[in-house]
Protein 1
Amino acid sequence: MDEKDIVIVGGGPAGYVAAIHASHLGAKVAVVEKDKLGGTCLNRGCIPTKALARSVEVLLEARTANDFGIEVNNIRIDFPKIMAHKSKAVSQLVFGVEQLMKGNKIRVYRGAGRILSPHLVKVNDEEIATRKVIIATGSESTPLPVPGRDLPGVLTTDEILELTELPESLVVIGGSHVGVEFASIFNALGTKVTIVKRRPLRLEPIDEEIGRRFAQTLPRQGIEVKIGAAVKAIERKGAVLRVVWDTPEGEQGVDGQMVLMATGRAPYAKGLNLSELGIQTERGAIKVNEYLETNIEDVYAIGDVVGKNMLAHVASYEGEVAVENALGHPRQADYHAVPNCIFAQPEIAGVGITEKEASDGGIPYKVSRFPFVACGRAVAMGETSGMVKMICHADDGRVLGMHVMGPHASDLIAEGALAIGLGATAEDIVHTIHAHPTLPEAVRETAMGQLDGAIHFLRV
């Protein structure tokens, strides 16, 4: 039997990145995947939703083209073509991952993996001997357990990506990042969207002020938000579905042609043989230490199945960390600079602590803000809503948190992540020359607000 150094169960952004990194470090690696390589992120999450978001960006630019002296007439949405663009992007990237597996000489076993021991994994009728095992089986959608959740037209976040016709109306249950993104996408395409949520829209771990400002933009975009709605059932009402909940004034509800369950995800570890192996779990998530080791020697776990930060980039990072530990290069996982992005209209992103966390933690801090309306590039682009907000330590000026709402927030947040990761100060950012005219100048101006004041924004 050919023994591998590492067998990775799961080929998503945690598993396939871990496999490639292990190969680069000289290990003999195998990946077990029962579906498509790339996992939820590539096939049913990050990539397809961002492809749809790009179609929306093009649509919105076309609608405002006349403001820039470009005559665009007869704008028409071709929903099947939008979905075809989404599918093409996914297929291209899945093919790319498959080629990376081949190029790095990583054996891919197709099927569900079962861990017989820390050194033996079974796939179908084949057994793979290994020195180490890394579990990277991801997560699954968790529909709200209410009557009517199985009715035709009640969709998971996977199923909504396979629609062939644009719904006239959509009720989104839950105000998760994913729910807000889908609400933004379908609203821009002309669907009447209503978000139904039990608690106020906070968008944690984004800063509370940024979250409130974003929530205020939703009604202006035409998205209705129902707060205090603890959904008790979904009912068929003629041609539409009705989502209902109780209030002190009696039962209330909202109608939609379709309903999206955006109520979160849960770690997926079915069929792995965890209990027989004695691997500890907590609320379905595999427990690991700071080296991403389980309580069983030579078995590691990474990504959504760990249940910490369910983000693709965190999963990939954990894959690299776990591989280094498995191969004898000790490295602790560090989560103090994890960027979060919401690809809505406008984009939102955050990294580090929020102002509330600084206040609640008794940390001496200073806040500075800079609006995009004062940023030359944003004005030229015609995208001036939003701002950059920075939270620094009051004593030494270290950047503790950065939060952005506005154009290309998901790109701009990288500077905040790097600053926090390196322990940089606001002064370090200010003393770094930023190209003009660019959006990152807004980050530098925000950092200047921590010192003597921004150049292009009057202090009040």
Protein 2
Amino acid sequence: MTTSRRPPPPAPRLLRILRDPVAAPCLVATVLSGFGSSALWLVSGIWVKDLTGSNTLAALALLAMWTPTLAGPVLGTLADRLPRKPLLIHTNLTLAALLLTLFAVDAPGDVWLLFTVLVLYRTAGVVQDAAEAALMARGIDKTLLGDFNGLRMTANEGMKLLAPLAGAGLYAAYGGPSVALLDALTFVLAALAYARVRTEPAAETGATAQSRPGDWRTRTTEGVSYLRHHPTLRPVILAAGATMFLTGAGSALLYAVIESLGHSPTYAGPLYVLQGLGSVTVGLASGPLLRRLGERRFAAYGIALTGVATALRAVPSDAVFLTSGVAMGVGLPCALIAGLTAVQRETPNELLGRTAATANTLMFAPTALGLAVGAALVSRVDHRTLLPVLGLGLCLTAGSLRRRGSGGTVPGCGPGGG
């Protein structure tokens, strides 16, 4: 009598990602470069302030790292025309070399070099984000995309909790060039991690013999057009952009809220920690939630939670204020994770770089506009009035997205799936 053996149960998805020859090295590279980038992000403004004494120039240092995001549709075209793995390796090594030029910055007249490096730094980052999104979409099982994007968010948020402290300590002890050196080292290590990625040739580039010919402008607008006309992607990406605009406006009110509670501005520190912990948590849970809810519902519930958290900040209570930080940390990443996952699942390989970069522009660029609007309103309108209005706007955004449909779930893994 023979007995049939049952096939072994599939490995947990987290373990599958950590064993995957594409996902695992990319995740390591994200952790490494994210640590260095978070440290430099904080230190750049402090560095400029110390050199010049100007608050305006210090703020412009942060703006310099935002500006290249606006060129996402153009920069994303590179990720479709060049081999993606070599592109990721070479941009990391180039950034490492570029950062070493900051050793020449030691006087107010050298600030222009720091600004130039920051702009080029973020420009390369936009290209890298597009190339990695495209590489992952074609390099790993589609059912793992939500899990990977969630883990990537967890890694980024985790680095934001640790790296600023390390960067600030290093800057206080040895100055800005030491932080630049740390960041350069993380980019060299990230390049080594990307060198270990093993992909099929089809995942390497979007340029194929069947790709439509055209000049740079034509190829760039193809990604924009694809997003604009896609019935699944358009509402998710636009809702994420609206969410970032409204939360950006709410962020500009943060210190008014802290002042009304009777605290100094440093009280924002615990809030950022709690918000980061919330983001780490939802990043770990996003894969299963995306498979159960689909991109639209996952994004809609996260946006609604963010709206409630924003409105609750108008309540004059420390406990409510800190709780809102956790809730916002959980809710806000949902729209971003859902948007990127939907783009990766729904976009043809030859358009992935351009479409991913365009989506990132539409999702992240509104943050700067929201900050500007919030800064203009905070001195004219009481924050206890503005915050509920912003919260209502977020809830309406969630409701609009939810009414348009539940969105697609990962094949075979939705409700009732395996």
Protein 3
Amino acid sequence: MIQNVQTFLRRIGLAVIAVLFFTGAGFAEENTAEKYLFRYKFCVGDVLKWNVVSQINMLTTKSGEREFTETYSGSTKVWKVLEVDENGTAILEYSISDVDMKNKTSLGAEEKTYNSKTDDKPAPEFHDVAEAIGKPLAHFTINTRGELLKKVRKFKYADSAEENRITIPTPENPIALGESWDYPKEIMLPQKDGTVKKIAIRERYTLKSVKNQIATFDFKTIVLTPLTDDRESQMQILAKIKNGTIQFDMKNGCSIRQQLDVDRSVVNPPQMRQGSVTYKSRFIEKYLREEN
């Protein structure tokens, strides 16, 4: 009997050791998952260029009638690194070296186009854009996490960095595949009474893959402020709620590609008793590497 009890206890002991061994192994594996740190790298004198394409289609349906507007814009965006401090924070000069633009509507108007490389005289609606080509538009101060610390406009028609940027706010600490981080922001909506309504949003980034030091993130915009009964605000933020993917070059410390899409509709928008507005857009930005 004693021998049987001893045998039983030995078996239990072995089973407990096995459970502890495998549980410990699993715990160790979970905690040793590779993590990645994402930081921007800037060097004084560097000139960084991106090909930027923006396409917008807007369809308005009212009383059975349909109207559409199509807009295309292609450009080369240039960032020149002016200063870099001991912490890696940089001051960048932003300009646009060329543009190719097209506007078309279903209202019978002639398609409007402007190409800065081939057209000497732009149409009146493109005059401001043509005047800005090749000029410093703004200076941006950006830290190694890609956060915009300061913006100084240098030209009266300067573009918005929030709508057309090369940096994303990277997480403070290293992260593993599948992990996400959020970046809070506010969208300012001017109101008819002269006030400004603040819409709280959250940008969510998720690390999907890392291959050959190129990281791919999923990007999603989450609206936190309730807008269910606010058609006016729904219309105003229609173009700002974007989702997409972003690629980051870990070796060189820069964003190299992003694609952001919008596909949203508002039913019975303001000043329209019955109808809808559908807004679709695609924004693609690709880094132009220097040829060897």
